[in-house]
Amino acid sequence: MLSEKMARALNEQLNAELYSSYLYFAMAAYCRDLGLNGCARWMEAQALEELSHAVKFYDFISERGGRVLLSSIEAPPSRWDSPLAMFEAVTKHENKVTGLIHQLVDLAIAERDHATNNFLQWFVSEQVEEEAGVAEIVQRMRLTGEAQGALFMLDRELGQRVFTLPPGTTLVAPAAK
What is the rounded distance in angstroms from the CA atom of residue 91 to the CA atom of residue 75? Predict the structure, then answer.
């Protein structure tokens, strides 16, 4: 059973993951407007990944006897100064999410909630991957500079990304028992 404090914090993270999904869909739309369909596809895959993270929190809260509480989702920005600025915003956002996950781990430890701490370790590892992946894209975008041909090559490469659900994750609630 989740403590009230832990349930509230997990619900806040669930809603933060939904915002992340919303943000990445906004970034995908921005990329499509620029004709960067590969970047758009990368962002759409990222949006679906974040949605799957929200579902993980949703399921966990329910499984542990907590009450899922959804809140309003703030409208994300819809424009950035450049594709590089957009990916730099992704870096900043993922760093923020990492901090939120670390705060949840700290709370789980303080509450001696071993099950929640165990659950959160997947997200700790996931954030390492998230930050490393976007850091590589930012570095490569900086290397392209003003070379439009290089940007289009990178766009084509980013368009190869395909989202697959992490093992053991579904986007629908399990069947009633």
Answer: 19
